From TrEMBL:
<feature type="binding site">
    <location>
        <position position="135"/>
    </location>
    <ligand>
        <name>Fe cation</name>
    </ligand>
</feature>
<feature type="active site">
    <location>
        <position position="178"/>
    </location>
</feature>
<comment type="function">
    <text>Removes the formyl group from the N-terminal Met of newly synthesized proteins. Requires at least a dipeptide for an efficient rate of reaction. N-terminal L-methionine is a prerequisite for activity but the enzyme has broad specificity at other positions.</text>
</comment>
<protein>
    <recommendedName>
        <fullName>Peptide deformylase</fullName>
        <ecNumber>3.5.1.88</ecNumber>
    </recommendedName>
</protein>
<keyword id="KW-0408">Iron</keyword>
<feature type="binding site">
    <location>
        <position position="177"/>
    </location>
    <ligand>
        <name>Fe cation</name>
    </ligand>
</feature>
<dbReference type="InterPro" id="IPR036821">
    <property type="entry name" value="Peptide_deformylase_sf"/>
</dbReference>
<keyword id="KW-0378">Hydrolase</keyword>
<keyword id="KW-0648">Protein biosynthesis</keyword>
<keyword id="KW-0479">Metal-binding</keyword>
<feature type="binding site">
    <location>
        <position position="181"/>
    </location>
    <ligand>
        <name>Fe cation</name>
    </ligand>
</feature>
<dbReference type="Pfam" id="PF01327">
    <property type="entry name" value="Pep_deformylase"/>
</dbReference>
<comment type="similarity">
    <text>Belongs to the polypeptide deformylase family.</text>
</comment>
<dbReference type="InterPro" id="IPR023635">
    <property type="entry name" value="Peptide_deformylase"/>
</dbReference>
């Protein structure tokens, strides 16, 4: 279905399917490149920086300055070779994340979510996946972390239109991980004390492959 060609189509940036979820798997290369090429890559903030450990502010102004922030986020995500990036990971206290992430069927998803909220799943949909997880803000560290293998997020797109995004497998993990960021949680905050300590030790013993902001 082409964007905006029926009354059922919302006036947002991306088309939606018959159930009202955005179709974020079309023209991924073109859309990501368009954002990234007008952006400037910024260094990544790392664990310990105060902006990562508090709830971010809602996005209320979707103007040109905000559009440039989104472009910078796509550029920064590409530099760091990430699949998702929240605004506070480049030091900006706003509830927005970008993603360029495959799901468990290998489909690539590219998009922007502002003011996200995870939809609480009924018990029958809560199958846990205990795959390993990492974070650009905890560079070089990985640890197994059980999360539901399906996720839904509501929010707004980069123009302020209401959206619903859903994903499975790795993409579901990405949606949960990035939403967590905007409410002040890192994945290591969901680990046991021993596992968290081990992850921070991994980080301390290795050099990140991308520019980071050193904590004072």
């Amino acid at each position: 279905m082409a964007q905006q060609d029926t009354d059922q189509q919302h006036a947002g940036v991306l088309p939606v399917d018959d159930e009202g979820y955005v179709i974020d798997t079309e023209d991924c290369e073109k859309r990501e490149a368009k954002w990234r090429e007008r952006g400037t890559s910024r260094p990544i903030t790392v664990v310990g920086n105060p902006v990562l450990h508090k709830e971010c502010k809602d996005v209320t102004d979707f103007g040109e300055e905000f559009q440039q922030l989104v472009a910078d986020m796509f550029a920064s995500q590409r530099t760091a070779e990430g699949v998702g990036l929240a605004a506070n990971q480049i030091g900006v206290d706003l509830k927005v994340f970008v993603y360029d992430c495959p799901d468990d069927e290998g489909l690539r998803h590219v998009g922007v979510v502002c003011n996200p909220k995870l939809v609480e799943l009924p018990a029958e949909k809560r199958r846990l996946d205990d795959s390993s997880e990492g974070c650009l803000s905890v560079p070089t560290a990985y640890a197994p972390l059980p999360r539901p293998d399906y996720a839904e997020v509501t929010g707004q797109d980069e123009k302020g239109n209401p959206i619903r995004v859903r994903g499975t497998g790795y993409f579901a993990r990405c949606l949960q991980h990035e939403t967590d960021h905007l409410y002040g949680y890192l994945y290591i905050d969901r680990l046991s004390k021993r596992e968290r300590k081990a992850a921070l030790k991994q980080m301390a013993e290795n050099e990140p492959r991308y520019p980071v902001v050193a904590n004072d």
